[in-house]
Design brief:
It is built from 6 helices and 5 strands; from the N terminus they run αααβββαββαα. It has about 190 residues and is α+β, with helices and mostly antiparallel strands.
Amino acid sequence: MGADGGITDDFTIPGVPDSFQRLWTPHRMAYIKGGQDQFKHQDDCPFCAAPTRSDAESLIVHRGVHAFVVLNLFPYNPGHLLICPYRHVPDYTDITVAETAEIAELSQTAMRVLREVAKPTGFNLGMNQGNTGGAGIAAHLHQHIVPRWGGDGNFLPIIAQTKAITQTLDEVRELVSEAWPSGAGANGDRD
């Protein structure tokens, strides 16, 4: 609309440059093309497959009795962890009291460990429930633990949905797993 409230000819035509710079993230197309149906069954679910492989291969930081801690493959920040129940359940109301307690304990331990190894000044914790709630993998419940630092919210993640990560996932997994206390929700780690 123009300054006078009338319609103007200033609209964007696909393929014609506008005032925005764009940073493309084509790896996200797998989620768009595959849709949420690709993870509804345990056989297709990366959170169900992860515990069947070695910790290093799956980026698992810790294995508990009812849940495990794994690095996010597409982290918002270095040290972005996920707490996942072993059971393939989609909703927070589907987990047992024991699973709820261990997920809470592992979340607290994750925060303590990340404070020790990475010195974040804050955290985002959360569960995105269902497709509409923004869950990337809605069929398998997972709790996000995202360490935050002052100034980490620059224009790249906010505008371009692109994040510069300063360490490899292997380096982060090694630091966090080495600092993880041996008695917290122990079920034995595998390498």
